[in-house]
Fold each of these.
Amino acid sequence: MENDPVIRPFGDTRNDGAIQLSFTLPIAHSERARAAARALCTSMNLTQTNVVHMERLDDRSTFFIVYGRTSASVDLDQLVTAEPEIQEMSIEHVNKTILTKLSRKAVVIGAATGTDAHTVGLDAILNLKGFHGNHGLERYASLDVHNLGSQVSNRALVSRVRELNADVLLVSQVVTHNELHLRNLTQLIDLLEAESLRGNLIAVVGGPRISHELAIELGFDAGFGAGTLPSQVAAFIAGSIQRR
């Protein structure tokens, strides 16, 4: 039924269970590798598995793309999701809210921390140009934006928070190998708390593997994933300042 809350993946027809997986196995490219990929999918209870692509990565590893079918389903009525509390606001509304509440500009610091050298997402949120026709935070007259760029150590970032008396901290995390982002973000919050800077600071983290739920668990006020618009971050900042 069209309105049935229980859903499954599909390819050709609704709820047919068609699914596509991609993964790498530590085995040389061979028919034995193909059999290993199919066996792995069978162990995950997939049926009608078909290895549609296998590619040698090196002498000891092979990359696979496999089609299959699953009987697993999701009941939408049972899902509990966490999202940042955001009231849609125009640039003018954001500016008025912040300037009225603070009687000054809000100081915003943004950085990609630790060893993370990726700034595309950070720049899209902060820089005047923004992206998809959505202006970055530098466009807002109520925000004093400081883009510190990439590979900023947590200690250096905390020092800048103190030096600039920041109201908002935006952290970008893209590198997630071996859960490096979790350790890095946890350390950052610990340092802010140790320096008594966490209290009124609005701390936000963003990245492709960041969710709001994860951000809250790590001690941040909000988490934003891929596709977040600058206007959404600006509205969250304004709403948070208004609720102080």
Amino acid sequence: MVFIPISDENPLRSISFQWVTIGLIAINTVVLLLGYPEAWNPIRASFSLIPAELFQVRIFGGAAGFPGQQVQVPEWLTLITYQFLHDGFTHFLGNMLFLWVFGDNVEDAMGHLKFLIFYLLCGIAGGLAHAAFLPGSPMPLIGASGAVSGVIAAYLVLHPRVLVWVLIFRFIPIRIPAALVLGFWVLTQLFMLATASPGDRTAWWAHLGGLVMGALLVLFMRRPGVQLFDRGLQPPARERALTGG
């Protein structure tokens, strides 16, 4: 990862605290800790999204009965439960870091309840996109990447000009516009999707599905009066003084 975001210069305007963002991070943390060590994996298989099982249930009306599942979970429900499972700390930290930095302002633009609905819908869209392009796959899909991709897309639509502190190559701190940070991330996802091998373990289609859903939903789920693309954003005080503003 070239850019690692650590904070943004974007105060909350409509809410006093990002309760849903913190709540989602807390739930993901608890689930991760419950799922560690590997002994929990057989139960985790029941809550992951398995494309072949999802579509077999929908088409034929019967469970596929994939091995390793110890809890009977309705297949439609796995479109939500898979979003709270992660394949280790690195997978978890990457998703939660982006949610921490960018989720609060998307929640601020929508309100608590609509943001929660938005987040889950983006995750569902990511899961469906992955399953649609790999309908016969027996491999379980887990992770918040689809939902977090939706958050990234919404932030990019709302606040492309906001400055974000990032670490370049993991060590060098620099402050750059969100459009550069997140735009580069989006281009990376598209490149990886185009060049992915059949055995790639990363669900790039889930990322894309979440991105598209997030960019669309923010247009309709933002609060009245919330402008897109930072229209009306005041420049920094020094810049206003130099321009006579």
